[in-house]
Amino acid sequence: xxxxxxxxxxxxxxxxxxxxxxxxxxxxxxxxxxxxxxxxxxxxxxxxxxxxxxxxxxxxxxxxxxxxxxxxxxxxxxxxxxxxxxxxxxxxxxxxx
Length: 97
Hints:
By secondary structure, the chain is an alpha+beta fold. 20% of the residues lie in helices and 42% in strands. The chain has one domain (26-96): Sandwich (Gamma-B Crystallin, domain 1).
């Protein structure tokens, strides 16, 4: 009986954890527009810039994080709310959450 209760408790904790964690694969809705005509519809994950300096227009419903390294590595150089834009001289990639 105690094993069944332990197993049931473990399943309940696992289920609550899954509900509490946001899905990292969920795409933002809208367009992420980068300099040089690079447009990403409903971006999901990291986007590397094709042209520098990095000119970002966040036309999504998510927050855009500008990183100093490729593949969204290094320091976060700017945080853009939905509907905002910025030019980052040292930005190389963008992640929309």
